[in-house]
Amino acid sequence: MPVSTRRVFLSGALSLSMGSARAAPAPLRVVASSLPHAEILDFVAGQFGPELPLKIIEISGDLRPNALLRDGDADANFFQHVPFLRSEEASMGMRFAVVAAVHIEPLGLYSRRAKSLADVPAGGIVSLSNSVSNTSRGLLLLQANGLIRLRSTEPGVDLTLDDVVENPRKFRFVEIAPPQLPRSLDDVALAVINGNYALEGGLDPARDALALERAEGNPYANVLVTTEGLAKDPRVLRLAALLTSAEVAAFIRTRYRGSVIPVRPI
């Protein structure tokens, strides 16, 4: 008899008490941010739940999904791209396993004050992520749209504000936590916002962004991650196959209309 799917909500204000005892068959415990990751997992659970029971652990607050995975409180997570994962691995002193590349959430430039990038006022404040990999990604998007020039764009090198060598419109930059970027829109001339946080903030990236990243050749695909010890677990491999299936790709295209873009398996 299949185990029913459950969705659990955790926030940084709560302590973890996940318990180590597992019934057989054990549901796969997957940590995910709410949009679009938990929604995609909900679709998988609805379509394929009897063959792959899932416990979807939706997170908020200051919980670190990779730490939950390291500590055995989850079997996999689905919220991040590889450059972010690599920076986490460096700080945590361990390696994880990437088992599937699922979708791109195009980074976008947004404004409540300007209807186009040409209308963004000189001297205005530009908010962008304070996480290392996403700061670099945001700076590259600003350069791609002719707003700044960077010292270097060498692959694999994390860029900082110190790498801005030309800023002809004299923008002032502020780095803030990624979940707060949509809220910054009322106070800044331009915000560089991750796709998932744009969706959570009620924005439609395909409609509302003044500019979006290109999907082609984009290194920031969101990935399913597990520990090296679980990389060949049949449940993990089955979830990886489902997340990169034609059915899930069709759901992503229909549900998010270009705001989230499916990619081929890695």
Automatic annotation (TrEMBL):
Q: What is this protein called?
A: Lipoprotein
Tell me the first and last residues of the signal peptide: 1-23
For the keyword Oxidoreductase, the answer is no
Family per record: Belongs to the nlpA lipoprotein family.
Q: Tell me the keywords, alphabetical order.
A: Lipoprotein, Membrane, Palmitate, Signal
Superkingdom of origin organism: Bacteria
**Membrane-spanning parts:** none
Gene3D superfamilies recorded: Periplasmic binding protein-like II
Keyword Lipoprotein applies? yes
Membrane topology per the entry is:
Lipid-anchor
Where would you find this protein in the cell? Membrane
